Every structure is written in C-alpha cells, then in structure tokens.
Amino acid sequence: MAKHYPFLDLGKVNAPYAVALKDACARVIDSGRYIGGTEVEEFERELSGLVGTRHAVGVASGLDALRLTLSAWIELGRLSPGDEVIVPANTYFASVLAVSTAGLRPVPVDADASTHNIDTSLLERAMTPRTRAVMPVHLYGRPAWDSRIADFASANGLLVIEDVAQAIGASLADGRCCGALGDAGCFSFYPTKNVGALGDAGAVTTDDAELADMLRSLRNYGSGGKAYYFDHLGANSRLDPIQAAMIRVKLAYTGHENDGRREIAATYDAEIANPLVLKPEPGPDRHVYHQYVITTPWRDELRGYLLSRGVETLVHYPCPPHRQNCYPDLARYSMPVAERLANEVVSLPISPACTSVDDAREIAAIINEFRI
Ligand SMILES: *Cc1c(COP(=O)(O)O)cnc(C)c1O
C-alpha cells in the first residue's frame, strides 16, 4: 500500500488539546453564562496581548469582523456608503464580500507575482476621489505590508483594515504583529485557520477605543448598553463563550503551532527542486504559512500526479472575487497576475498535526519526480 499524505485532519489538529478543550467546555457549562461573560472578556484580553493592541472585540466570524469594522466606520462618520475600498485581487472571497455587504465599493488591485499579496506598486493607480480605505490581506500567512502601503495610506488619509484571517502570529522583521499595523485587524478562528475554534468565531484588534466601543454595540444589535434601547442598526454577531473558551486553550500555543508550520515550509523550501514548479520566495517577515503554495502552469497534471502518489492538495483559490458570478460590476477589471495564479496555485499539506518533517521531505521527493 502506498503511503497516504492527508491535507488536513481537524480531529488530529485538536487531539493534543482535547482534554483541555473538554475541561474548558465543562467550565462554560457549569458557569451558567452562555452569552458574553468572562470567557469572552478574557479571550479579548489575551488576543490584544498577543497582537499588541489596546483592544480586541470578539465577534461571530472573520467575515463579520471585516464587515462590522467597515460598518462601524460608517456609523462613526469616517466612511460613507458608496466609498471605495482598495482590496487585493488575489484573496479569499470573504475579504471582498465584507466590503460590498457593508455598502462600500471594492476596487481590486492585482497581486505581486512573487508574494501573491497586493502589489503595492499599483496602489496609486487605483486611487479615485472616492477612495477612503485600503485592505491588506496577509494571504497564506505572509505579511502584506511594506513602506509603500504604509506611506500610501497615510499620504492619502486612508483607513487601513487588515484581513488577518490567515496570519495570526505573523509579524514584520521589526517585530510588529499583523493586526497591529493598520487601524483595525480582523481575525478568523474558523476551524482550519492556524488557531481554529471548534466552530465559527472572529475578532477585531485595534488601538481605537471608539471603534472598539462601536463594534461592541454593533455585534449586539446596535445596543448602546442600556437594555432594549438601540442606537445603531447592528447585527447579532456576538462571540460564543464556548468558542472563546476553545480558542483560549489554543491561543497560548499560537507560536508553537506556527513554528511547526514554518519547519515544514523550510523543509519544502530546502527540498523541492523541480524546474516545473515555483516555490514561495521567503521574505524578510515572519510568514506563518497558513498555506504553502507552489505554482506551476501544469497545475491539474501536478495535482493528478500527486494524488496518484497519495499526496492530497487543495487550490486556494480557483476563481478570484472579481471573476465570481455575483460580481458583474467587477468583471470589467483585468487582473492578469491574480487570474494566472488562480490557474497555477497548488497548496501542499502544511499542518504539523498531520504532516511530519519526514513526510514533507517525502512529498518534496515525489514533487521532484514530476514530469510532463
Ligand atoms: C477565512 C477567511 C475569511 C473569513 O473568515 P470566516 O471566519 O470564515 O468568516 C476572510 N478572509 C480570509 C483571507 C480568510 O481566509
């Protein structure tokens, strides 16, 4: 029987934490407090400590973290409906969906062919008189940040909303954490993320007390705190205390989990040597490898070959947001790099719970035998 290399097995990811997770769950059950309360407050304190911001606000998902942050800025008068938000063309759909469902207009900017993140040399060209914000997405766990995006945002007075869904624990060479670089950092704890809950969960980090207060209101229908009185048209997007308790168990091991991913990535970096395949370029920052993504023009052939050798792979993502059926308004944009990446990317197994360094070495050897 040929060996099998699974992409991801969430049971295995959580097995080392199972006893602590069950204890934490029992703690919530016994507390009698099933909305808000100390689990959510302690989680918020721990996340803001990890990221290095003054505040963190737990919400129901990563999508809501993004959407409610943008809505909060509208409520605070810092954005107006119809304003434009610059987004990367190469991102997960939810980044862009958050912008349009908040009543704002996403304007895509093409990807850098080497980092797959937003090409910061193209930002100026996307500016219009309606541009009010920019959303760097730290895709695959690689910080999407440089002096160009920082200077661009401050020179034009733009709000910066970071999509940190894939990059908890990622940081710049100077030590600053993703989620503390812009005006707000939006996290997802979807079960497959580097730190995953056992269901849906999200959070926003910020130094801005006004934004944090507005988010606390919007996640609770728009209530100002006085029971049954509402100041804003909010949402029901409270972070479930059971999920807060689950995340708290795992948050303490963020660095450990990311180090495991980085070790597998370093093995792929060192061992994959096939001229048909391009590896991600290591950059100066701390990349946390939510995905390890290689590219090849023979993507489908490579995936079929790898599967025949027992190696499961995935594609993140096969169709960019501006090419989705739900976005006819974005169809006029041509984003050649993002469109090419959608046809060429392959994600290799990277979860340290499912893939050992020896497995990574074997997978690299299998890739090196790929021919067309
Ligand atoms: C997962 C993800 C989201 C959405 O998070 P959910 O918790 O699934 O709503 C947003 N942006 C990116 C880049 C993601 O990977």
Automatic annotation (TrEMBL):
Keywords of this entry: Pyridoxal phosphate
BP GO annotations: polysaccharide biosynthetic process
N6-(pyridoxal phosphate)lysine found at: K193
Annotated catalytic residues: K193
GO molecular function: pyridoxal phosphate binding; transaminase activity
SUPFAM superfamilies, per database record: PLP-dependent transferases
The keyword GTP-binding belongs to this UniProt entry's keyword annotation: no
Entry keyword annotation includes RNA-binding: no
CDD domains listed in its UniProt record: AHBA_syn
Matches recorded under InterPro entries: DegT/StrS_aminotransferase, PyrdxlP-dep_Trfase, PyrdxlP-dep_Trfase_major, PyrdxlP-dep_Trfase_small
Family: Belongs to the DegT/DnrJ/EryC1 family.
UniProt-listed PANTHER family: 3-OXO-GLUCOSE-6-PHOSPHATE:GLUTAMATE AMINOTRANSFERASE, TRANSAMINASE
The protein's name in its UniProt record: DegT/DnrJ/EryC1/StrS family aminotransferase
Organism of derivation: Muribaculum intestinale
